[in-house]
Amino acid sequence: MEINGLPLHPLVVHATVIFVPLAALLVSVSAVWPAARRRLGFLTPLTALVALVLVPITVAAGQWLIARVPQAPLIGEHASIGRNLLPWSIAVFVIAVALWVRDLLERRRQRGTEPGAERPNSRELRRRPAGTAITVALAALALVASAGSVVQVYLIGESGSRAVWEGGVADEPLEG
């Protein structure tokens, strides 16, 4: 897997390192801040989808690259840690979609456009508790999944940089 003679893995990993934490941030903000959730709309699940698609592409490109470089323990460790990101990315995506759908349904209910729903009066809306059990559960799951995905990106990136650079840089400037 190459682009213009360069291995795909070091190229696509930069997009993954941007989109996974960005999706985590958008999901976290959407989970705890309803106004932001309404403004972000479909951008949160779309960003999470892009991150989710990038993860297996990055892993596959890394597997391709591993077969073409000398074996080293640090590379094996990096590959092993790299496989741990997919479940976290799936969780972030599922939660992003759940938050978006929940917000759409809530807005429909408030407008009275949900099939069979009566339009609530303003007194009913004020009496409704701000945080329902589902909202609180989604927020907790969003924060855990987001934190997990960001921690995994950090661990993977740190192990990858060690695999590439450890022992490859001189302590002193090279002459000439």
The tally of helices reads 7
Distance, first to last CA: 35 Å
The ordered string of helix (H) and strand (E) elements is EEHHHHHHH
How large, in whole angstroms, is the Cα Rg?
Answer: 22 Å
* Share of helical residues: over 70%
Residue-averaged pLDDT, rounded? 89
Strand content: under 5%
State the major sheet: 2 strands, antiparallel
> Regions with pLDDT < 50 over 5+ consecutive residues?
none
**What is the count of distinct domains?**
1
How many beta-strand runs? Answer: 2
State the secondary-structure class: mainly alpha
Shape: elongated
Assembly state here? single chain
Per-chain topology:
Layout: E1 2-3, E2 6-7, H1 8-32, H2 34-40, H3 43-66, H4 73-82, H5 85-111, H6 122-127, H7 133-165
Antiparallel strand pairs: 1-2
Helix pairs in contact: 1-2, 1-3, 1-5, 1-7, 3-4, 3-5, 4-7, 5-7
Keywords: Membrane, Transmembrane, Transmembrane helix
Protein name: DUF2231 domain-containing protein
Transmembrane segments: 12-33, 40-65, 85-101, 133-156
Provide structural commentary.
This protein has 176 residues and is mainly α. The protein has one domain. The chain has 7 helices and 2 strands, in the order E-E-H-H-H-H-H-H-H. Strands 1-2 form a two-stranded antiparallel sheet. Strand 1 and strand 2 form a beta hairpin. Helix 1 (8-32) crosses helix 2 (34-40) and helix 4 packs antiparallel against helix 7 (133-165). The longest helix is centred in the C-terminal third of the chain and has 33 residues, at 133-165. The protein is elongated and about 75 Å long. The model has no long low-confidence stretch (mean pLDDT 89).
